[in-house]
Amino acid sequence: MRLLRHLFARSSRRLFPEDSLHRITEAIAAGERLHRGEVMFAVETNLPPSAVLAGVQARERGHEVFVRLRTWDTEANNGVLIYLLLADHRIEIVADRGLDGRVSDAQWAQVCRLIEQEMRAGHPERAVIEGVRAVSDLLALHWPQQEGQCDEDELPNRPALLD
């Protein structure tokens, strides 16, 4: 059944057209003005059949994407990836080691539930924007912007479509 879901998954480009990607990019940029962390969003329609048959799960794939997109490549090790695997209806948040012990698994899970709720309601763009805001709120608690301090935008704000 899982293989069929991956073979016939609805394209991420249909859920997130160009104007939607632009608004998500703007939400990431706005959030990053509140904190010194780096937020990325990546969406993947499906996994290749070989990965599905090998049992690759969304969490494992999220870590692979975290590395592939170099989300870890920040000076303060405070990058966060919101990863959405459409075929499995899974959201994963992968945070760099600079956030270990600062943001709990329960807090990340709460953000995932928020995104899931909006996705189920048929609002993919709103789901991602609300998720970005929630992640930004958590980052602002632990890595707030400092007045007068220049914060370099170290990672791209544009969503990654991995189709």
Automatic annotation (TrEMBL):
InterPro entries: TPM_dom (IPR007621). Pfam families: TPM_phosphatase. It comes from the Bacteria. Residues 15-137 form the TPM domain. Transmembrane segments: none annotated. This is TPM domain-containing protein. It comes from Pseudoxanthomonas mexicana.
